[in-house]
Every structure is written in structure tokens, then in C-alpha cells.
Amino acid sequence: MQGLDYLDEDTWGTVFRDVILLALIGFVAMVIMLLPHITSAKKKAEEQIAPGNVIVEIHWPTDLPVDVDLWVQAPREVPVGFWNLGGHTFNLLRDDLGSEGDATDENYEISYSRGIPPGEYIVNVHMYGPPPPNTAVPVNVVVSVKQGWEDTRQILKTVVELTRHNQEETAFRFRLTADGDLVPGSVSTLRRRLITGTN
Fold it and tell me: Which of 81, 103, 162, 174 could lock 127 by a disulfide, CB 3.0 to 4.6 Å apart?
């Protein structure tokens, strides 16, 4: 009888180990099947909040040591520029002073958004300091939209000429959908000051 009791304990121990092992294998299989769904949901969430959804940049000649400023305004928000470097949507990532304190010869400023709120966007350029006498400063303005991590497309481009101290010009006013598509017929250069708030 003692041998029979020993056999029963060993049998029940084997069954218990088998059940535990099968439960563990089932749990691992469920986790592996769920991983693609968790990864895609995480990627989608990251794409929606990825910085640089709307990218606005300005460039001006490297041989002109002048301070040009970029100002941008997202829908229903305050303007972002050199004295207000960040808002809920936009951040000014580079405030270029011309040749002063530059690590490179490139003259440019750039703003990135987090997300793409639908509505009207305004992009202005401002001549902070006086330009050289009888010199027009050509400022290249480019607006791009990034959907996802690699899908970046340029939607607007122009050149604005600045000729005097404190001159502020509207390069673009345009509307975007929540998907980052340019609303047809929404692009204009109708002047709207972002620094003083008056037209």
C-alpha cells in the first residue's frame, strides 16, 4: 500500500506540473497574439502626438548679418515667436540672430507643432533689426506637414522681401484639416500682425 500511495502522489504531481505548464504556454501564446495590436495602437498614439506635424521654417542669405524673426499662430492660440517661444501647439526651436552667436553660417529659424489642430494658421516674418541701406532681404518661407514618422510633404513655399526695420509681413494664412490636408482656396497673404495684434 505504501508503494501505491507513492505512485498516486507522483501521478498527481505530474498532472499538476502538466496543467501549470499548459496554462503558462497558453498565457504566452495569448501575449504573443496580442503584441501586434498593442504595438500598432502605441504607434498610432505616438504618431498623433509626434513633434513636427506642422513644420514652418524661414531662411535668408548667409551674407546678410540681419536678424529676421519667424512668427506662427495655430488655430485659437497666441502667436509663437522670439518673446513667446512656445504655446500649446507650436514651439520656436531656433531663434537666429543673424551672424551674432552663430555656430554655423546658416541663417534660419524653425517652428514645430505637436499635432495638427484643424483651422487657420498664420505665418509671419519680421525684420527685427535694420537691414543694410538700400538692401532687400529675401526670406524663403516653407511650410511642411508630417503625418507619421516619415511621410513629410511640403505644402507651401514663398519668398518675402523685407526692406525696413520692424517690418512685419504675412507670408501665409491657410487652413488645415485634422488630417493635415490643405483646405482648397484657403491660402492667402491677407495681412495680420502677430507681434502687435493689429492690422
Answer: 162
| Reported pTM | 0.70
Query: Closest Cα to residue 116, out of 57, 71, 179, 184?
Result: 179
Confidence of residue 151 (pLDDT cuts 50, 70, 90): confident
The x, y and z cell numbers of residue 67, run together, are 536678424
Residues contacting residue 185 through CB under 8 Å, at least 6 positions apart:
none
Q: Dump pLDDT digits (tens) for 54-86.
A: 999 999 888 887 889 999 999 999 999 888 888
Residues 6+ apart with CB under 8 A from 172: 121, 122, 123, 141, 143, 156, 158, 187, 188, 189
Closest CA to 26 of 34, 15, 14, 36: 34
Domain boundaries, the chain: 1-48, 50-176
